[in-house]
């Protein structure tokens, strides 16, 4: 089983930037078992991120909307999904109103971690198919390289048969970006429109993953890159954070009419109240200045102490 | 006194209500049947009483006569569905790549060419086969059209067909249709086609009893792919056996020139991308006919597409035909020349066909080597024709069975393949 896990897909080489290895140990195993190297690797794999694309095999909740059963190994097969209808998965009490019912769905396990080699030629993948996904607004692409297949979020100009590349290299001069390719933000020129960007290194894409959305790389300050989000807020992230060049596919998603109240029920929503909400800002809201620049992950890294190894006496 | 409203317009609901008023009060007429039956000694029971009888449902398990309370077999002894984990009897700790009937290729025939090391000659059949192609008389075609209607529309088998799905209208439940399942259509179609071909060949003084058939038998060929053990197996097929083998279609310089041509590029994919690894498999070789039997030479293989909904695009089905034909030919070659054979002393040549009872794919495979990791560009040869539809429409229109756009080419191609096999006998 251990070998299978290690052989599974690219996400397994992802390291966590927020939870250190020793913290993982303390969380999972309170007994001291630090000597076992295989177990420590397992811990690193298991505690990946808060959005939890691979935490543990078994049922995993996505908000109060649905829970999905994840297998041990990455697969492109459709996964079983159960609707929560706004209930908390632990307590079973209703937390969110307006959810419930809808057409039956299956979950597609989308790989949000596009990790490429830091040296040498990039990872090249071929787009085999562009598909509809009921659990997200964007379209997904089935891509393959070698004998590995995975789903990623499709960009707007992606076509079947295209070759897309993923690289982790940050050169001195900015590269000329091609849509669909994934690079670290530090490698891209200023003014590039990107999507599927990471907040924390190795966490997986969380910024602008919805249909048609994009963020803009505004400027670079030292080792950090500043992104303008679709909400016009600016955030500063590390230059090693990966991002895909271009916009997310299904750009006219927001212009498509749902058509009828019953179609809204098919999509899993219950009827809305229809009343005027003074505090939510429904039916008009005051324009306020944008919040100030938010700096994420500003912890200082510990300096690496180099130890000169010399031999004073001969053998 | 209040007068009732005058119904001026014609209303179908009112019409039905009026009819129901009359029809709901019906008298049961006495014809003297009850008395006649009672004279003969037959018991007569009221229909309502018969329906309300509480009959005990018998258990499927046999019960001991001496101890009627105890069952002969315990419930735990009844075989259950095997769990697909390490308790399965065919479980192996080392995973293995398995090609089977329900596997579809990601890219198409290019991938199949790389797996089997095969040179493709597309949209043509060998010259020897095309030389046998001739026009069939009109009466045979008329008979074939009747057979198509029989196989597609007029067959008596009726089962509940799978649910119809339309992705444009999610949540819409279509009415469940009773009709002919696809496997039945395929079997009937094949029976009728070979019946027609046999009947017309008998008129030309050809002994059709020199070819024998097997149906839906398991075939398994263990081979080495990319340095690892892998399994090729198939079941949904019909095989034709003869007394003598088919002679190779191509030889000499033309063959070596064809085999030296480069295969199509599938970068950045690996050739084994579609053949998944699994832990539950069997490694033994399996072939239905023993060596030394009167009809032990494989001449033709027919593969069926039985799944209700097949999403295909590109050349996926052509790739399926090549891999299925290779599987059958490889199992036949392993039976004749040993399980560890690489380069065959004599090539194994088979004709092959794939059908969903509407579209027909014809091909010919000439197998020279089972070495899938060899340094050569290609070892084997495969001819394939473009898919030919048998008809454009075959269905009920206004409760009348209708066949439109019959294509005579399909029967003529099958006849040419079959005749070329007979000529070598």
TrEMBL record, chain A:
<dbReference type="GO" id="GO:0032543">
    <property type="term" value="P:mitochondrial translation"/>
</dbReference>
<keyword id="KW-0689">Ribosomal protein</keyword>
<keyword id="KW-0687">Ribonucleoprotein</keyword>
<feature type="domain" description="Large ribosomal subunit protein uL2 C-terminal">
    <location>
        <begin position="177"/>
        <end position="296"/>
    </location>
</feature>
<dbReference type="InterPro" id="IPR022666">
    <property type="entry name" value="Ribosomal_uL2_RNA-bd_dom"/>
</dbReference>
<dbReference type="InterPro" id="IPR014722">
    <property type="entry name" value="Rib_uL2_dom2"/>
</dbReference>
<dbReference type="InterPro" id="IPR012340">
    <property type="entry name" value="NA-bd_OB-fold"/>
</dbReference>
<dbReference type="Pfam" id="PF00181">
    <property type="entry name" value="Ribosomal_L2_N"/>
</dbReference>
<dbReference type="Pfam" id="PF03947">
    <property type="entry name" value="Ribosomal_L2_C"/>
</dbReference>
<comment type="similarity">
    <text>Belongs to the universal ribosomal protein uL2 family.</text>
</comment>
<dbReference type="InterPro" id="IPR022669">
    <property type="entry name" value="Ribosomal_uL2_C"/>
</dbReference>
<dbReference type="GO" id="GO:0003723">
    <property type="term" value="F:RNA binding"/>
</dbReference>
<dbReference type="InterPro" id="IPR002171">
    <property type="entry name" value="Ribosomal_uL2"/>
</dbReference>
<protein>
    <recommendedName>
        <fullName>EOG090X0COM</fullName>
    </recommendedName>
</protein>
<dbReference type="InterPro" id="IPR008991">
    <property type="entry name" value="Translation_prot_SH3-like_sf"/>
</dbReference>
<dbReference type="GO" id="GO:0005762">
    <property type="term" value="C:mitochondrial large ribosomal subunit"/>
</dbReference>
<dbReference type="GO" id="GO:0003735">
    <property type="term" value="F:structural constituent of ribosome"/>
</dbReference>
<feature type="domain" description="Large ribosomal subunit protein uL2 RNA-binding">
    <location>
        <begin position="86"/>
        <end position="166"/>
    </location>
</feature>
From TrEMBL, chain B:
<dbReference type="InterPro" id="IPR052482">
    <property type="entry name" value="mtLSU_mL37"/>
</dbReference>
<dbReference type="GO" id="GO:0005840">
    <property type="term" value="C:ribosome"/>
</dbReference>
<keyword id="KW-0809">Transit peptide</keyword>
<keyword id="KW-0496">Mitochondrion</keyword>
<dbReference type="InterPro" id="IPR010793">
    <property type="entry name" value="Ribosomal_mL37/mL65"/>
</dbReference>
<keyword id="KW-0689">Ribosomal protein</keyword>
<dbReference type="GO" id="GO:1990904">
    <property type="term" value="C:ribonucleoprotein complex"/>
</dbReference>
<comment type="similarity">
    <text>Belongs to the mitochondrion-specific ribosomal protein mL37 family.</text>
</comment>
<keyword id="KW-0687">Ribonucleoprotein</keyword>
<dbReference type="GO" id="GO:0003735">
    <property type="term" value="F:structural constituent of ribosome"/>
</dbReference>
<protein>
    <recommendedName>
        <fullName>Large ribosomal subunit protein mL37</fullName>
    </recommendedName>
</protein>
<dbReference type="Pfam" id="PF07147">
    <property type="entry name" value="PDCD9"/>
</dbReference>
<dbReference type="GO" id="GO:0006412">
    <property type="term" value="P:translation"/>
</dbReference>
<dbReference type="GO" id="GO:0005739">
    <property type="term" value="C:mitochondrion"/>
</dbReference>
């Amino acid at each position: 089983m251990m070998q299978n896990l290690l052989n599974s897909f690219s996400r397994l080489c992802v390291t966590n930037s927020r939870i250190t290895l020793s913290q993982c140990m303390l969380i999972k195993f309170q007994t001291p078992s630090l000597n076992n190297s295989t177990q420590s690797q397992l811990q690193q794999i298991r505690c990946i991120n808060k959005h939890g694309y691979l935490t543990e095999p078994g049922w995993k909740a996505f908000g109060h909307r649905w829970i999905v059963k994840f297998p041990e190994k990455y697969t492109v097969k459709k996964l079983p999904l159960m609707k929560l209808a706004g209930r908390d998965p632990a307590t079973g009490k209703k937390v969110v109103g307006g959810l419930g019912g809808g057409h039956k769905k299956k979950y597609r396990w989308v790989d949000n971690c596009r990790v490429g080699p830091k040296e040498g030629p990039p990872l090249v993948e071929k787009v085999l198919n562009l598909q509809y996904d009921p659990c997200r607004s964007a379209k997904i692409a089935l891509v393959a390289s070698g004998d590995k297949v995975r789903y990623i979020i499709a960009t707007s100009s992606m076509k079947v048969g295209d070759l897309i590349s993923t690289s982790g290299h940050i050169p001195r001069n900015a590269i000329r970006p091609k849509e669909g390719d994934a690079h670290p933000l530090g490698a891209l020129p200023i003014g590039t429109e990107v999507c599927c960007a990471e907040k924390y290194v190795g966490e997986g894409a969380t910024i602008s993953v919805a249909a048609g959305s994009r963020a803009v790389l505004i400027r670079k300050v030292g080792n950090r890159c500043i992104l303008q989000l679709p909400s016009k807020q600016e955030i500063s992230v590390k230059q090693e954070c990966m991002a895909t060049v271009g916009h997310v596919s299904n750009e006219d998603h927001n212009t498509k009419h749902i058509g009828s109240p019953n179609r809204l029920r098919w999509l899993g929503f219950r009827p809305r109240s229809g009343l005027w909400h003074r505090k939510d800002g429904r039916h008009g809201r005051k324009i306020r200045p944008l919040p100030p620049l938010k700096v994420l992950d500003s912890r200082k890294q510990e300096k690496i102490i180099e130890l000169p190894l010399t031999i004073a006496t001969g053998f | 006194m209040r007068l009732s409203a005058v119904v001026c317009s014609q209303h179908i609901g009112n019409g039905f209500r009026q009819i129901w008023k009359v029809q709901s009060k019906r008298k049961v007429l006495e014809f003297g049947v009850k008395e006649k039956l009672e004279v003969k000694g037959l018991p007569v029971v009221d229909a309502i009483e018969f329906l309300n009888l509480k009959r005990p449902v018998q258990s499927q398990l046999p019960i001991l006569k001496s101890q009627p309370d105890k069952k002969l077999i315990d419930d735990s002894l009844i075989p259950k569905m095997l769990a697909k984990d390490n308790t399965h009897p065919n479980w192996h700790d080392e995973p293995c790549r398995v090609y089977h009937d329900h596997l579809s290729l990601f890219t198409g025939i290019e991938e199949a060419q790389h797996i089997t090391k095969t040179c493709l000659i597309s949209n043509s059949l060998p010259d020897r086969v095309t030389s046998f192609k001739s026009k069939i008389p009109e009466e045979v075609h008329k008979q074939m059209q009747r057979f198509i209607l029989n196989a597609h529309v007029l067959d008596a088998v009726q089962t509940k067909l799978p649910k119809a799905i339309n992705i444009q209208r999610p949540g819409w439940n279509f009415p469940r249709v009773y009709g002919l399942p696809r496997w039945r259509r395929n079997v009937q179609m094949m029976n009728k086609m070979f019946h027609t071909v046999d009947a017309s060949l008998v008129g030309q003084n050809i002994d059709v009893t020199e070819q024998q058939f097997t149906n839906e038998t398991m075939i398994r060929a263990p081979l080495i792919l990319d340095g690892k053990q892998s399994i090729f197996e198939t079941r949904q097929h019909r095989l034709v056996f003869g007394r003598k083998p088919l002679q190779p279609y191509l030889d000499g310089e033309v063959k070596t020139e064809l085999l030296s041509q480069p295969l199509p590029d599938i970068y950045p994919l690996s050739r084994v991308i579609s053949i998944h690894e699994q832990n539950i498999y069997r490694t033994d070789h399996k072939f239905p006919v023993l060596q030394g039997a009167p009809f032990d030479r494989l001449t033709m293989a027919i593969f069926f597409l039985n799944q209700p909904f097949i999403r295909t695009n590109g050349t996926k089905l052509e790739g399926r035909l090549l891999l299925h034909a290779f599987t059958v030919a490889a199992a036949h070659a392993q039976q004749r020349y040993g399980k560890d054979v690489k380069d065959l002393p004599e090539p194994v040549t088979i004709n092959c066909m794939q059908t969903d009872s509407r579209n027909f794919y014809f091909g010919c495979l000439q197998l020279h080597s089972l070495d899938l990791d060899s340094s050569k560009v290609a070892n084997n040869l495969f001819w394939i024709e473009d898919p030919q539809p048998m008809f454009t429409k075959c269905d009920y229109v206004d409760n009348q069975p209708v066949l439109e756009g019959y294509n005579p080419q399909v029967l003529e191609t099958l006849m040419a393949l079959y005749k070329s096999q007979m000529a070598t006998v």
